[in-house]
Amino acid sequence: MESIRQDSRFTEATVLAGDIVREIEQDNAPLDLICLKSSRLALLLNDPKQSEVFTKLAYNAGECVAHLDVVGERFDKIQDEPKRPEDPMKRAALSSLSHEYYRQEMRSYEDDPVVKRKHEMKRFQESKQKLSLFRTQVYKYALDNYYKLRFSDIPEHVFAKTRLRVDNHLGKVLPDSKEKFYSVYSNLESNNPEDWANAVHSCRRILQALADKLYPPQDGKTVEKNGKSIKIGSTHYLNRIKQYVESKSESRRFKEIVGSHTEYLWERLDVVYKATNKGSHGEISQREEAERYIIFTYLLIGDILTL
User: 1 in a domain, yes or no?
Assistant: First the structure.
């Protein structure tokens, strides 16, 4: 299912899928009408091929229902007709007759109500089987997509709550951060890969600003750690973020959020750093890739600010 996150279409598709599921479960609507609704659902889900399939199913379902009605009436008539006694000797002798006479005799024999009823019953069962298959196909499609639509906004809802929390913290530390993230979101709306790269690169500038605020640069100075000299100048914002996080290592919040897995946090920082480098060189080829890096950056900032 391709993305249809346009509020009106998303809402209509969700409601329509739910209606289709209920109508099939409660058996309170003609199947051909349900198929047409499913065709509309497929269009809302950007699935024109499946829409055509359901349109054809609607026509076939209508034919099957009409045939069942006709056959039902025929059953009543056939049952009212007097049963002709079956003559096995006559039927066996037909094979020895001329071709034309054989056809005439067979036509006469097949007028027998019992034979006619068997023939109609076979067609009746075939039509019922087709309708059952149509119903199952439509039901599965509607139910699968109903759950996808109904619950696809849960991650978005969770992220929205996280975003409010992060915005609250970030707004206090970096008052102009909202404008920067607004620029990021605007670039994501574009269809130009260069704008996606710019969006990711903007994350680099936000991280740099965050580092400057939390752990101001000290050009020409270093911090000794495990026998290594860690530069903390203006261009070494990643090192400064790490120094800030480690300065909180004795706090309760640090243990709750990071615990002993500081390497995991460093890996996340490295991923964002590499991503922003890609953004700087315009190597972001898919919008989804840019979105993933931006969300990753956003959540990382949220964790850092809550220490």
Answer: no
Calpha distance 175→177 (Å, rounded): 6
Say whether both 173 and 280 belong to one domain.
yes
* Residue 75 one-letter amino acid: F
Pair (60, 160) in one structural domain: no
Q: What is the pLDDT along the chain (307 residues), one digit of tens a residue?
A: 444 555 688 889 999 999 999 998 888 888 899 999 999 999 999 899 999 999 999 988 888 777 676 665 555 554 444 444 445 544 444 444 444 444 454 454 455 566 666 666 777 777 778 888 888 999 999 998 988 888 776 666 677 777 788 888 888 888 887 788 778 888 888 888 888 888 888 888 888 888 899 999 998 888 888 788 989 998 888 888 888 888 877 777 766 666 555 556 656 666 666 776 665 555 677 788 888 888 878 878 887 887 7
Q: Cα separation of 5 and 18, whole Å? A: 18
Last residue of a domain, one of 107, 132, 151: 151
Is the overall model pTM greater than 0.70, yes or no? Answer: no
User: How far, in Å, CA of 67 to CA of 136, rounded?
Assistant: 20
Q: Please identify, among 101, 123, 151, the residue that sits at the C-terminal boundary of a domain.
A: 151
Residues 31 and 167 both lie in one domain:
no
Instruction: Indicate whether 267 belongs to any domain.
Output: yes
CB 243 within 8 A of CB 307: no
112 and 37 housed in the same domain: yes
Q: How many domains does the chain have?
A: 2
Give the structural domain span for 80.
7-151
Same-domain status, 169 and 144? no
Render the burial of 59-97: b for 16+ CB within 10 Å, e for the rest.
ebbbebeebeeebeebeeebeeeeeeeeeeeeeeeeeee
Q: Which residues contact 6 (CB under 8 A, 6 or more apart)?
A: none
Tell me phi and psi for residue 294, to 5 degrees.
-70, -45
Distance, in Å, from the CA atom of 3 to the CA atom of 124, rounded to the nearest integer, reads 42
